[in-house]
Each structure stands twice: as C-alpha cells, then as structure tokens.
Amino acid sequence: MAVILSARRTAVVPRGGAFARLSIEQLAAPVVQAVLADAGMGGAQVDEVIVANALGAGGNPARRLALAAGLPERVAGLTIDRQCVGGLDAILLAAALVDSGAARVVVAGGVESYSRRPLRLATDADGGAPVAYDQPPFTPWPDRDPDMTVAADALAQRLGIARAAQDDWAVQSHRRALVDHDWPEIIAVAGVTRDPFARRLSPALAARTKVLAGSVTSATTAVAADAAAFVVVARDDMVTPGAMRIGPGITLGAAPEEPGLAPVPAISCALACAGLRPDDLTQVEMMEAYAAQAIACVQGAGLDPARVNLRGGALARGHPIGASGAILAVRMFHDLTHGHGLAAIAAAGGLGTAVLFSR
Fold first, then answer.
1. Could you tell me which of 40, 43, 22, 21 has the C-alpha nearest to residue 32?
2. How many angstroms separate the CA atoms of 18 and 47, rounded?
3. What positions carry a catalytic annotation?
4. Of 39, 167, 192, 327, which sits most exposed with the smallest number of CB within 10 A?
5. How many whole angstroms separate alpha carbon 270 and alpha carbon 3?
6. What's the pTM?
C-alpha cells in the first residue's frame, strides 16, 4: 500500500498579498524541494510529479515546476484539473501509480495563484468581440450550473442551516486557527511562515459582514488565495518512522446543481471500503469553501463536529483551488498521531473526493 513519507505547504495568502508577484513554479518548487529533503531523498529518486492546478490555463505547470525544482529532465510532470478536488485527486493518482508498480516515488499535490491567473476571454461564434469571463461552465446545462455562492445559499435554505449557524462555524474556524502559531508544515516563501488571514472573528463582526447571497456572507465564504502543497508518495517497503498510509479514497460525481453535498457519498463509500464507521475517525479535515457546505457535509456524513478541522479550516486560511485538497492531506500528515483520518472536499460540477489516511 502506498504511503506518504513527508508533507509540506506554503502559507495560504489571500490574492494580492505577499505571494502576488510569484509564479506558480516559484510557489511550488521550494515545497517540492522541502518534501524531498524531509523524506531523505534526492530528485534522482522521483519517478513522476502530479500537480493539480485550476487557473493556470494549460502549459503543463507540473513540467515547469519539476524543472524549477531541479528534478531530472526525465521527470515529465502531469497536470490535472478537477478544480477544488484536484489536490486530493493528485495524491490518489500518485498512490495508484505506486500501488500498481508503475512508480516507486511520486511527488503529488497542487498549486494555485489567484493573483497571477490569466485573464479569460470567450470567442464569439458570430465574430463579435471576445467576452471576458471568470468561471468556466461546469455542465452542458446552464440551468444546472449555478454560481457557487448561490448554490451554497440554496443548500443552506434546503437543509435549514441558518445564517447564525454559518457564522458560528466561521468564528470557530478562525478561533482554532489562532490557538497555535507553531505550524511545522509551512515552509517560508517570500518570508511568510504562517497563514495571515486567520483573525479574531467575533459573532458580532460576522453578523455585520457583507451578504453575498441570502444567508451566505463574506465571513462564511473562503477567500481566493495563493498557495502550494505537496507530499511524497512511495511504496510501503520504503516506510520511514512517521509515514502515513493512504486509502481507501474515491472521487464521485453527484448532482451538479448541488455541489456542496457531493463529498457525502464519497465519504460513505470510502468508509465502507475500509470497514469503518464515522465514529472510528480520529480526525477529519473538511474543506470549508463555505460554512454552509462544511456543515451540510458533516451532518450528511454523520461526522462528529468535535473532530473536524481541529486547527481551523479554509475559512480561516483561504481557498487556493488546485492546492486546497492537498492542504487537507498535509494538515492530516502533521496532526494525525494515531488511528484513522478523513480528508474530504467538494468541487464545482458536483464532484466530491474523500480519502482515508491511517497511522
């Protein structure tokens, strides 16, 4: 079975902040070098690099960062785009390569720069001027392809998740993130060694924040951000003290108009494959793109909220799309001391990924 030997990330910095001038390879290469050093490996031992990236507009970023990190030219690099779930999916793909015998060592994770993302223009079929757009279509049906914030509010309304409950979740996320500033998983890039967005968010302040859609506010929505996160995946005959086992894990599609709930069937499937129940989990890292989405998934999967995002979540960090899933795995690697952990994340188009880890 494939294992994670090491895991590191940059801080998560809201767009326009300290990472605003960095390219994705400048963000990612130091992290790749750090995880290899932690694993006691050189670049010559790496068979492949798998990188999730959603906003880079092609060009195989994995190849660029592999070269920037000083890996051998034979390491081709594979870039995937499954939007928010991509970072975890990169790790699942790495595990599949290792388990199949196609590779012994794979560096996997994700990187995103909201600050440096290319501008997007859609050509006009009738020859008119190109039209700028920010979100690409995630389904062939516009009526089943909602704005993510609108979808989060619709989910909250359907499940009766009040604004006060969303505010409380956000306040707790920030509070937990501020408890301990010792974050060994973060490597210094551009002088930043901690997630700068976490703050003392009070219920009163949350209640005054800008409404984005219905019950969803700027306080209960993760901010766009820049970051990179990577792990070293290897065969279990290379296990070193502290290695973390991967799996089972799965990505499933669900109703595209309700993407926030997509992780629930994936969580159920992963637990069933492992013969586990929600109560068997020691720790859960649940993506908080929206407080409503996190609450809905915790309730829908029957998870214990007291074991979820013990040191805060994306509401207190930010959401660097391609890197977000990998950040969950990096968090798990540094905090899971025993038993079983779960990382889960949703993506536009109705995708959900859930991965179990164990020590």
1. 43
2. 32
3. 84, 319
4. 192
5. 17
6. 0.96
Distance between alpha carbon 30 and the CA centroid of its chain, in Å?
A: 19
Structure tokens at 207: 């209640």
Structure tokens at 197: 């967005």
| Tens digit of each residue's pLDDT (9 = 90 or more) over 276-317 | 999 999 999 999 999 999 999 999 999 999 999 999 999 999
Domains of the chain: 3-117+225-238 (3.40.47.10), 144-181+244-358 (3.40.47.10)
* Strands, E assignment, the chain: 3-9, 13-14, 48-52, 78-80, 105-113, 120-122, 131-133, 211-213, 216-217, 225-234, 244-253, 281-286, 340-347, 351-358
Q: Name the burial class of residue 255, with classes exposed (0-12), middle (13-18) and buried (19+) by CB atoms within 10 angstroms of its CB.
A: exposed
How many residues appear in the chain? 359
| Dist. CA 191–CA 98, nearest whole Å | 35
Look up residue 143 and give its two tokens.
Answer: 């009526």
- Token match 């390219």: residue? 23
- Structure tokens given for 115: 């600050």
DSSP state of 209: S
Q: What is the pLDDT of residues 236-251, one digit of tens each?
A: 887 678 899 998 999 9
The Cα-based distances of 313 to 197, 258, 288, 319 in angstroms read 11, 21, 6, 10
**CA pair distance 266, 337, nearest whole angstrom:** 24
